[in-house]
Amino acid sequence: MSTVRTRFAPSPTGYMHIGGMRTALFNWLWARHNGGQFILRIDDTDQERNISAALGPILQAFKWLGLDWDEGPEVGGEHGPYFQSERNDLYRSAVDQLLAEGKAYRCYETPEQIQADREAAEKEKRNFLNLRRSLELTESEKEQYEAEGRPSVVRLLVPRDQKIQIDDAVRGHVEFDAGLMPDPVILRGNGTPLYNLATVIDDAQMQITHVIRAEEHLSNTPVQVLIYQALGYELPQFAHIPFVAAPGGKEKLSKRKLDKYRKSPQFKKMFDKAEAVFPRIGLENADGLDPVMVEYYEKIGYLPEAILNALARLGWSLDDKTEIMSLDTIVENFTLDRIVKAAAGLDPDKLLSFQAHWMNQLSLDEKVAHCGPYLEKAGLVKNAADPETSQRISQVIVGMEDRLKIASDILDFDEFFVADDELEYDPKAFKKRIRKATDAVPLLEKVKNELAQTSDFSAAGLDKLLHDFVEAEGIGMGQIIHALRVAVSGKGTGIGMFDCLAILGKESCVRRIDRAIALSQSE
Ligand code: GLU
């Protein structure tokens, strides 16, 4: 058997769609599973925009996830060029061959004429087929049309007596009746190729053995099969995979529906998170990044392992029960026969649970390395690698326990990184726990004095100190602990109280309690 060669052929749109990434991943997995090659080809025939700007985020998504390509942009290869815009000569010569062999024809019919034919067919309730009037033209009539500058396109001459059979690796056996197919345009009037033509020529010349792509292309496949046959190329194995659906829905996940997603209960958390995080790390226009884009996950602090795991599970399963899988495990087990036919919905909660798992697998140092840049970008620390800073980040991460899921979650614990006189107090918590709570201020004053005097500021030492304190005062722990938390952290919730005090250290705790007391008396 020949080497497995798969490809992903994105149009440069300026962003990488998470559903498209799943298609790319399946192609990559199948190539890697078989020790074959994965090719990246750029479908830029219809592009007027700046290619490198539109392609950048797509290549970055592959690099971030660690999905390498054996041939394509930046790496080259033996079957290039890998940009369709640079392959026009190849398309033109294939079309010339088809014209010379009578398998395609130049069609001079006007759009009006074709529209009239369509309407006539509709009226008589028959299927529309091209009347192929241009085939009747004599050479001199054609020359005259050309001399007049009459517009024309090239159409494939569909062999109407054929049944087109496709054995799709996912959809199974599919048949199409060529007798019902109009002659598709393969070359536009301006000499540019249509998708179906360019794709077949590229796939054949790049020796692609498996075309794994979104199911919406199944309807293009019969035309492509006819082009393969007309050009004498061997057919690849097709695998049309189900689309990635929006959370909880059956509709294809689409950037056009963002307004709807923003309000959907499943997606809302992701948008809220974006709004909370992106402006803080200097991405003012958080709207520019949304959960349909791979870049959203990278920028907000997901791990490639989590995204790859989640994407692999969108429409493929190892054994109907295993959820957590490393990329190596997926590569080892990936086969096309375990791709499902039904659309798979992106599930933000599930994605987060994969992320939580993979975050948990990291060593403390690795976690620090992931979180540090967020603190730097938010201006909370100058240099996360500085030993003292990195020590504090480690302590906070340890204190966060499983509250650290996404790297940017560290920003929710900014109380450990702001200066004492810049700590902000959550007004609600402050009112409830300090201003309105019985004896909160005198108790804070007393406990502050104890804290100032102790020589053991470890979490265990503080645990003992506070227990002794409540006993001596004859109060419950609840009567001091909430006020103390708000006073030192500004917030009503956070990491374990004794850890919190220990990380902040004596000086900060004393200063912050003083500030809270002053604040409660100032208004
Ligand atoms: N550029 C096409 C797309 O993004 C490629 C389709 C194909 O894989 O044939 O839909």
Automatic annotation (TrEMBL):
<feature type="short sequence motif" description="'HIGH' region">
    <location>
        <begin position="10"/>
        <end position="20"/>
    </location>
</feature>
<dbReference type="GO" id="GO:0008270">
    <property type="term" value="F:zinc ion binding"/>
</dbReference>
<dbReference type="InterPro" id="IPR020058">
    <property type="entry name" value="Glu/Gln-tRNA-synth_Ib_cat-dom"/>
</dbReference>
<keyword id="KW-0030">Aminoacyl-tRNA synthetase</keyword>
<protein>
    <recommendedName>
        <fullName>Glutamate--tRNA ligase</fullName>
        <ecNumber>6.1.1.17</ecNumber>
    </recommendedName>
</protein>
<dbReference type="Pfam" id="PF00749">
    <property type="entry name" value="tRNA-synt_1c"/>
</dbReference>
<feature type="domain" description="Glutamyl/glutaminyl-tRNA synthetase class Ib catalytic">
    <location>
        <begin position="292"/>
        <end position="351"/>
    </location>
</feature>
<dbReference type="InterPro" id="IPR001412">
    <property type="entry name" value="aa-tRNA-synth_I_CS"/>
</dbReference>
<dbReference type="InterPro" id="IPR014729">
    <property type="entry name" value="Rossmann-like_a/b/a_fold"/>
</dbReference>
<dbReference type="InterPro" id="IPR033910">
    <property type="entry name" value="GluRS_core"/>
</dbReference>
<feature type="coiled-coil region">
    <location>
        <begin position="118"/>
        <end position="148"/>
    </location>
</feature>
<dbReference type="InterPro" id="IPR020751">
    <property type="entry name" value="aa-tRNA-synth_I_codon-bd_sub2"/>
</dbReference>
<dbReference type="GO" id="GO:0006424">
    <property type="term" value="P:glutamyl-tRNA aminoacylation"/>
</dbReference>
<dbReference type="Pfam" id="PF19269">
    <property type="entry name" value="Anticodon_2"/>
</dbReference>
<dbReference type="GO" id="GO:0005524">
    <property type="term" value="F:ATP binding"/>
</dbReference>
<comment type="subunit">
    <text>Monomer.</text>
</comment>
<feature type="domain" description="Aminoacyl-tRNA synthetase class I anticodon-binding">
    <location>
        <begin position="373"/>
        <end position="517"/>
    </location>
</feature>
<comment type="similarity">
    <text>Belongs to the class-I aminoacyl-tRNA synthetase family. Glutamate--tRNA ligase type 1 subfamily.</text>
</comment>
<dbReference type="InterPro" id="IPR004527">
    <property type="entry name" value="Glu-tRNA-ligase_bac/mito"/>
</dbReference>
<keyword id="KW-0648">Protein biosynthesis</keyword>
<dbReference type="InterPro" id="IPR008925">
    <property type="entry name" value="aa_tRNA-synth_I_cd-bd_sf"/>
</dbReference>
<dbReference type="InterPro" id="IPR000924">
    <property type="entry name" value="Glu/Gln-tRNA-synth"/>
</dbReference>
<dbReference type="GO" id="GO:0000049">
    <property type="term" value="F:tRNA binding"/>
</dbReference>
<dbReference type="InterPro" id="IPR049940">
    <property type="entry name" value="GluQ/Sye"/>
</dbReference>
<dbReference type="GO" id="GO:0004818">
    <property type="term" value="F:glutamate-tRNA ligase activity"/>
</dbReference>
<feature type="short sequence motif" description="'KMSKS' region">
    <location>
        <begin position="252"/>
        <end position="256"/>
    </location>
</feature>
<keyword id="KW-0067">ATP-binding</keyword>
<feature type="binding site">
    <location>
        <position position="255"/>
    </location>
    <ligand>
        <name>ATP</name>
    </ligand>
</feature>
<dbReference type="InterPro" id="IPR045462">
    <property type="entry name" value="aa-tRNA-synth_I_cd-bd"/>
</dbReference>
<dbReference type="GO" id="GO:0005829">
    <property type="term" value="C:cytosol"/>
</dbReference>
<keyword id="KW-0436">Ligase</keyword>
<keyword id="KW-0963">Cytoplasm</keyword>
<keyword id="KW-0175">Coiled coil</keyword>
<feature type="domain" description="Glutamyl/glutaminyl-tRNA synthetase class Ib catalytic">
    <location>
        <begin position="4"/>
        <end position="279"/>
    </location>
</feature>
<keyword id="KW-0547">Nucleotide-binding</keyword>
<comment type="function">
    <text>Catalyzes the attachment of glutamate to tRNA(Glu) in a two-step reaction: glutamate is first activated by ATP to form Glu-AMP and then transferred to the acceptor end of tRNA(Glu).</text>
</comment>
